[in-house]
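Field log, afternoon session.

UNIT: design team B
ACTIVITY: writing a sequence onto a fixed backbone
BACKBONE:
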């Protein structure tokens, strides 16, 4: 899958070059091409380049006055800073995207809910759990009105909310949500997709905190195998999962060192 990601990046770079050469006056085409390449770069942990691409796309989107596209780019910029754990800066972007989408009165309820989940994840990263939890719950309520259409976004929200409950010590509720997220993701994108491994990592952490080290280690091993095959040995998500697997001991200091992979 790593080869596919690299190949996709190469194809998207070619698409951007074509758009820049032949569609210089077409802001919509340029914005879409730059945004798509930014997403590919984020998947490959090329965060600086992804941010630069989103910001360039934003300049074209501003010119085209496409409010929903601008909101999406702010959402994506927030995601970059979330991945880098620059939560304060990510919150600024995420709020801009959500507020713009709401101000436009977007008919796409799922997009608004996805913006809410993204902002809640950033608040969660700052341990502002009392703000993040109701935002996750409200977003899930919207997304679950169309469960088949929104399966992917529901899975993301379940993963994030499950991770929040794990941090708050509600392991039973956390496990319930994370298991459901694994099932939904596996059905939608395949059981060996790295997004599934993200949730497996969080599920392993729940078992670790319960003291079920054998079960936690087995889940970490599964997640690590997926990350290594899909993203390579040196990707930040792979490295974080490997650290968690290696720290899966009975040592209470190591217990505290366990971290969730970027959501």
């Amino acid at each position: 899958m790593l080869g596919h990601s690299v190949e996709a990046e190469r194809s998207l770079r070619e698409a951007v070059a074509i758009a820049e050469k032949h569609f210089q006056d077409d802001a919509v085409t340029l914005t879409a091409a730059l945004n798509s390449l930014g997403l590919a770069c984020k998947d490959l942990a090329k965060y600086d380049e992804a941010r630069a691409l989103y910001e360039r796309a934003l300049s074209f989107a501003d010119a085209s006055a496409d409010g929903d596209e601008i909101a999406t780019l702010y959402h994506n910029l927030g995601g970059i800073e979330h991945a880098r754990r620059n939560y304060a800066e990510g919150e600024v972007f995420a709020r801009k995207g959500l507020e713009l989408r709401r101000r436009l009165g977007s008919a796409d309820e799922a997009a608004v809910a996805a913006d809410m989940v993204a902002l809640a994840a950033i608040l969660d990263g700052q341990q502002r759990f009392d703000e993040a939890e109701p935002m996750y719950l409200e977003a899930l309520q919207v997304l679950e009105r169309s469960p088949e259409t929104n399966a992917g976004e529901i899975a993301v929200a379940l993963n994030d909310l499950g991770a929040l409950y794990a941090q708050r010590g509600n392991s039973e509720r956390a496990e319930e949500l994370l298991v459901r997220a694994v099932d939904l993701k596996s059905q939608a994108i395949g059981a060996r997709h790295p997004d599934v491994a993200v949730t497996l990592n969080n599920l392993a952490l729940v078992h670790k905190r319960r003291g079920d080290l054998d079960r936690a280690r087995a889940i970490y091993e599964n997640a690590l195998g997926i990350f290594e095959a899909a993203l390579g040995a040196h990707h930040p998500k792979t490295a974080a999962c490997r650290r968690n697997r290696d720290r899966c001991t009975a040592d209470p200091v190591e217990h505290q060192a366990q971290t969730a992979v970027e959501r």
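LOG NOTE: The longest helix spans residues 2-22.
NEXT ACTIVITY: expression trials, pending approval
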